[in-house]
Amino acid sequence: MDRLRHIRERFGGAGLLVIGFALFCAVYEYGRVMQLPPTPYHGWRMADCLSLTTHFHNGEGRFLAPVMHARLGDDGTTGRTAGELPLLYWCVAQVWKITGPSELVYRVIGLLLHFIGTLALFLALRRWLQSTFWSLGIALLFFTSPVVVYYTIGFLTDVPAFDLAMIGMYGTVRFAQVGRRRWWVLAMVAFALAVGLKVTAGMGLLALLGLYFVVTVMPGTFSPWRPIFPRPLFGWSTALLALLPVVAWYIHAEGINRAHNGRYTFNSLWPIWEMSSAEIEAAQDFARDLLWFQVFDTSVWALVALALVSLAVNMRRLPLPMRLLLVALLLGLVLYVLAWFHAVDGHDYYFINPLIVPLVVLACWLWWLRRDHPDLFHARWARWAFAALLIYNVAYAANNHTLRTNPYSVLDRKDVLPLYHSEELRFFNALYWGPLNELIGIRDELVPAGILQDDLVYIPLDQSINASLYFMDRPGHTRYAFPLEEAATLEQMRGRGVAWMVLSEELERTHAWLQPYLGVPAWSRGDVRIHALRSLPLIDTTVVLFDRDRAIAMTLSEHLDTIPCADPHPWRCFSDAQEPYALFDLPVHAAGAEYAEVTVVGRAEWTRGRPRGSRMHIWQQDPQGGKFTSHRLPEGDFQLTFRIDPRRSPQGCKLYVDNDSGRPFRVRMDRLEVRRVWPLTAPAEESGVHIP
Fold this sequence. Notes:
The protein is built from 23 helices and 15 strands. It is of the alpha+beta class. The strands form three sheets. Strands 2-1-3-5-4 form a five-stranded mixed beta sheet. The radius of gyration is 30 Å and the shape is globular. The chain starts with a helix and ends in a 13-residue tail after the last strand. The relative contact order is 0.08.
């Protein structure tokens, strides 16, 4: 009987968790949603994740060298890029090698990971609270957060990172209770992987290690609680060894992005101090109207507030480590919001991992109730009240999930439960991919239409990085990096080998000048067509403004901020001034020209190693305010070509160096020329020195 009771106590709660988790999934209509393609709300970021996974699957990407469909890297010629640790994408890709590429499989893996994380949270809380009811209730309560519900099967790494943090929490609690080293190893590895998947998941780990540091340097003060932490040598070496590969990855990723200049995300701060007052106000409005309610409904925030006030009033009765942990997490939350305040405006998934703060607050509050107010902790009315709260929030999250995942229909108030806040129905209703919806599921139709697997495409309909390219499973470019503004853009696409262009009827009507570039549509659906991209017959002239070898002297007006140069002519040496060199009135304007190219040939050298941020710009002034065209100024020999619109600069334009390196440097200018290009039918206006 004792053994049966032990088995029931040990596995009964886990069985209830399985049943509750499955019921929640059914209420959230996961069976329907998991059959959908990436849904439009933050589909941009979902497509990035799926694109990286696709290239791991097909072998073009390697774990240390990820690749995506969008050709952002190496001046628009490669998909080399890196962001968070690609462990999830790589693992899903290995499963795809067995099942075949499948968004459903990806979603199932995400759901399984979240179940494991929820189970780890339940087991940790049960050891902490010694109550199956409250442990089960709190673990399931965090599966009623609308952002968690949506992104659990939404391809992003935020929920898997949170799940790994829950596993880290379980390992920490187990070590504190039994003192076995394997649980500390599990905790550190899980926390480190969480940080790898999402750098913002490090909040709990930082608070834990901060507390451990205080315990390490003040052993006398914390002697009663010393056994809950490992001995310093083992504990700190384990933490450092676990974090070392993650830190190495982020350094490696930054190196990839600097080498290829193809960054699709960032692994640094997005702070309030870099925002304008208008941006701050917009973020505050979004937080007040929407974000607050996407993390939790007001009822849960009321419970968290009650717990926080109770703990604050009774702070002196709490163990010292608990007090420090709570203060560290709350302070960390404030700093987090300030450091990523840009994300407040629309990026709800950035606030999944900070859920560890209300989780720890509730766990500490319930622990305090069990110790100091056991009658309340075990009261039936309290449990019934919490059960009602849980049921209400399941319904609220299900209603919110319905709003987020019905992108192809218009929902009225009668179509959803009256469990939403004032702005939610308007904001989420009828989210739509627009014309990109026609590209979903067309991969198998492209090769028969003559659009081969490796053909480059240009999709100016799409302002995301990868969405349309992922739907088509073709490499290429979107409006994100190459907006369709002028014929020079199309010539640039042709120069990079783009063979196809995806347009809507509306875009073709509003950009009638496109017609000469478009072949007969190879594929069409609805109002979307895929055209072969043709080159126009062109003529050009080249004006040589300076050539050191041919003794063609510079005639343009110059601004120089030089310093004495130890080397003889032709080197020019500059200090660390921000804009030490400029050339004015480049003759790029010509009547009827389609585009112009300015080519600069020379060599740059820095006195103290490789620069990090120096660039060469062309600035064109026009009635709309002007436009930059830029290239990084590399160390050593360079040949930089700037493709610009000559119609924007009837009075010429300026070429200058922006020395962001903050270091002295020197430049040798070897050649400067301007090439202007006309359609064959237009008269060429020729001037200057020409090359046949």
